[in-house]
């Protein structure tokens, strides 16, 4: 079925069960079969099979790609040769070429993705700058907007927004792991960050477990922390290997390292010092720079 000016007019069509509706839709189709193209220039260069493209210019440069679902104005306008993609939204996945098995939904989501496969991007500008990444999940407005890394799970508005590489990390919560303003510095890997603004300023810090709103919020380059609880380790920047468990535990420790603070407000006012152990409500809560205390 061909309806519209030069719809499916590329020559002798030997393919079967095709539907092209709209000016120049399915224009180059010959042997491809079971395609549905609806909209002006939709599937204009398509030669593959079992594609669905709906919307003005949707999939208009797709060539041999097959089993793709493309819905939205100017969605997936790259030279698509990959297959099994689900792409929905205005100007979504605009550069996709050989990538396969991606699910991308949202205005400009996955806009730079070319050969990356098996990614899930849902939300406005989610995964917008990713190009060749594999196995990334980014859900939320501008989540993983600046690329991030393969095999990551990022959920929440602006989560890992400025991270360039956060491979093998789990980042969940609005602005969690957002990263510093210098995108090139944000390369920390293997982190678990859960909660609003958890690990928000992190750059090259790695192998941390940070759970709770504002917990570890200012950590930048130090590694190996365990911080659990609202505001736990809130002001820590470069001190490494701290264990802070409890509401505001170690909250004002800025550079202290290898401390264990467990309990509500434990070591709340300590600003530095290392190798301390404080357990219990308000334990070791005076202001100081002490070290090697239990």
Number of strands: 17
Low-pLDDT segments, ≥5 res = none
The computed structural class is mainly beta
Mean pLDDT, as a whole number? 94
Strand content: 15-25%
Task: Work out the helix count.
Answer: 0
Query: Which radius of gyration do the C-alpha atoms yield?
Result: 25 Å
Largest sheet: 17 strands, parallel
N-to-C SSE string, H for helix and E for strand: EEEEEEEEEEEEEEEEE
Q: What percentage of residues falls in helices of 4 or more residues?
A: under 10%
Form type: rod-shaped
Distance between the termini: 80 Å
Briefly characterize the structure.
This protein is 0% helix and 17% strand.
Task: Write up this protein.
With 294 residues, this protein is mostly beta strands. The protein is built from no helices and 17 strands. 57% of the residues are buried.
Q: What structural keywords apply?
A:
single chain; 294 residues; mainly beta; 17-stranded parallel sheet; 17% strand; rod-shaped
